[in-house]
Amino acid sequence: MNLTNSETEYGLISKIFHWLTAAVLFVQIPLGLYLVDLDFGEKRITIESIHVVLGLSIFYIIVGRLIFKIFNPTPKIRNSIFQGQRLIAKLNHIFLYLAVFSITISGALKKLFNGEKLDLFFFHIKIKDNYDLADTFYEVHIISNYILIALVLLHIVAVIVHKYLFNENLLKKIL
Question: Is the Cα dihedral 106, 97, 71, 171 positive or negative?
Answer without folding.
Answer: positive
